[in-house]
Design goal:
The chain has 226 residues and is of the alpha/beta class. It is built from seven helices and seven strands, in the order βαββαβαββαβααα. β5 and β6 form a beta hairpin. α1 crosses α3, α1 runs antiparallel to α7 and α6 crosses α7. The longest helix is centred in the N-terminal third of the chain and has 21 residues. It is globular and about 50 Å long.
């Protein structure tokens, strides 16, 4: 086993983030999905923590969003997130990867150092290192060797992954990090991103700043001194 791998599953440029479709339709939602992916890939590449980085998706249009010199595209053959991760695990195993880190493509505030930290978390050998989301999901999960814990993404996936590791007697580590735990699913998350990245330092933050106000978004009080 020679190097660490990272994989970023993407449902599709149009199919992703359907919970936002009421307020973000067509090109606006696609632009946001592309921005989220750009932010995640930028931090992964700059971390230099991985020898191989892959984006897996059933949507071949996603390939146009990556830089082939640093990231490769993998066409997803199964349906759903768990099948995508299983496919990546098999490929990483065939490639004799030391570990595989699955990174969800909607954590725009992640920084390069966060990936270095999760790769170095825990003792060498069979282990799982996870960063849970604020909503009970698993935003980042390293498995060493790849697939040592089978993916159980869906509702409360963090608890599922932790339980699977415990049952199998595999060392499990958790990284509590406000950047890794913050993901984008709803318009409330977009409003929160504005608060956390008011200057638009991330690509996603810049895109959200240009979207205008969302329905029911709290407005600053207007004071009159007349």
């Amino acid at each position: 086993m020679t190097e660490n791998w990272a994989v970023i599953p993407v449902k599709g440029l149009i199919e992703s983030k359907t919970r936002l479709s009421t307020h973000l339709q067509g090109d606006k939602r696609r632009i946001l999905v592309e921005a989220l992916l750009d932010d995640v890939l930028s931090s992964i590449i700059r971390s230099r923590a991985y020898g191989t980085i892959k984006v897996i998706s059933p949507d071949e249009n996603v390939a146009s969003r990556i830089r082939p010199a640093e990231v490769s595209f993998l066409k997803q053959t199964g349906i759903g997130l768990n099948r995508a991760v299983e496919q990546a695990n098999r490929l990483a195993t065939l490639g004799h990867a030391r570990s595989l880190t699955t990174v969800l493509a909607d954590i725009p505030l992640v920084e390069p150092g966060d990936f270095k930290e999760i790769v170095g978390l825990g003792s060498p050998g069979r282990r799982v290192a996870m960063a849970p989301s604020m909503k009970g999901g698993t935003n980042v999960m390293l498995t060493s060797p790849p697939g040592v814990v089978s993916p159980g993404y869906g509702r409360w996936s963090y608890s599922k992954h932790l339980r699977r590791a415990q049952v199998s007697g595999i060392n499990a580590y958790s990284l509590s990090n406000p950047r890794l735990s913050f993901d984008i699913d709803t318009t409330a998350d977009l409003v929160e991103l504005r608060h956390r990245d008011p200057q638009g330092k991330t690509v996603s933050g810049k895109v959200v700043s240009e979207l205008g106000q969302f329905p029911n978004e709290a407005r600053e009080p207007i004071y009159s001194f007349s």
